Amino acid sequence: MTASASNGPPRMRLSVIGIGYLGLTHAVCMADLGHDVLAIDVDSAKVAMAARGEAPFFEPGLEPLLRKNLDAGNLRFTTSYREIAEFAEVHFLCVGTPEGENGAADLAYVHAAAGALAPHLRGRCLIAGKSTVPAGTARQLLATIRRAAPAGELVDLAWNPEFLREGFAVQDTLSPDRFVFGVTSPAAADLLRQVYRQPLAAGSPCLVMDLETAELVKVSANAFLATKISFINEMAAVCEAAGGDVMALAEALGHDERIGRRSLAPGLGFGGGCLPKDIRAFRATGLKLGRKPLVNLLDSVEEINLGRRARVAELAREMLGGSVCGHRVAVLGVAFKPNSDDVRDSPGLDVCRRLAAEGAVVTVHDPAAMVNAARLWPDLGYRQSVTEAVTGADLVLHLTEWREYRALDPSALAQVVAQRKLIDARCALNAELWRDAGWAVRILGQR
């Protein structure tokens, strides 16, 4: 442990392996807690970019914090595993676990990182995994690392899953709603408590458990969240069929303290690089363990989720007389959620793809995600302002609930569209305001 700042918490030497979304956020926030952080990635261009103070993705508040800690000397970047092995007492493993064959997590990056680090480990240290992995991975990884590391049994391993929400990642790292430590020794838990001393002192609860349970916490949390979202979206379909109002239903359900209002938001469904991937990986684990009820549950969750995208395309056809072919459709939002530039498994971008495939002329606006969207679907029309996107449109689709869209003036937009028709697929706009301006409005979950 390095020397303490005067009257401050002890500084520790930490490494962060992998500087993608999770890793860079974790490295920056650990440095901001006052630790000395050395982050590594095999991508030298990504390392150079981070060392210049530039984040390769949009996350509110991250880039200023990155520059602050670079300037303070708390944070450095490297491509050398030897350097991080000699430097750090705790190594955070933050590499990606993308979706692999049959939905199972691809652990190639995890094993590659561990294999590159282990031969350089010559003294006592802790490796703390943060990546989302199937239960059993950590224990196998510990055995493999100890066989390859000169330090042998002096190397310990813990699993410390992350619970970041895109758009709130800095807040969720510095002030998380809980810490989960999966450990094989009390010493590992004590070392992690030292790393997180400040947020723990501020009241974040800490739960210590075995490796396998810690690995299951993250995928279980995401599976439950996905199930809650799909449940309210299925209720939206029921409300449409029965003539009900899903927003009033959600409000009533949310007052039940056993259910709660958070994440009970009907709409287009979930996407991004986490929930869809993790529920498919958990499904693969369920298959491996012979848990058919879990598999059936997760199959239904995904079926409902994908069905909301098909429902928006269906509504678009209905509002345009049975076909979207030849019609101009303006899309507001293609990031999978607001305050993010992430378009991985984006529900909004999937709706664009469906409509374009049926012959619609699709124009898109998004405050942050258009560059990433254009890489995936360059044939869509991308516009730098909402007015440009909706000019001449026969139908406007609200697909990502960015704050600026809620502040739009429907009367002003009515002057530039070809037809005043709107589908609010996120149930977030003031429908009465739009209807008063002469718009025909359809909302998921309402007749």
Can you tell me the CATH superfamily of the largest domain? NAD(P)-binding Rossmann-like Domain
Rg, rounded, reads 24 Å
Domain count: the total is 3
Whole-number average pLDDT? 95
User: Residue ranges: pLDDT <50 for 5 or more in a row?
Assistant: none
In percent, how much strand structure appears in the residues? 5-15%
Distance between the termini: 62 Å
CATH topology of the largest domain: Rossmann fold
The shape, in one word, is globular
Write a structural description:
Helix content is 45%, strand content 13%. The protein is of the alpha/beta class and 447 residues long. It folds into three domains: 13-209, NAD(P)-binding Rossmann-like Domain (Rossmann fold, 3-Layer(aba) Sandwich); 219-306, N-(1-d-carboxylethyl)-l-norvaline Dehydrogenase, domain 2; 311-443, Rossmann fold. Strand 5 (125-129), helix 6 and strand 6 form a beta-alpha-beta unit. It is globular, with a radius of gyration of 24 Å.
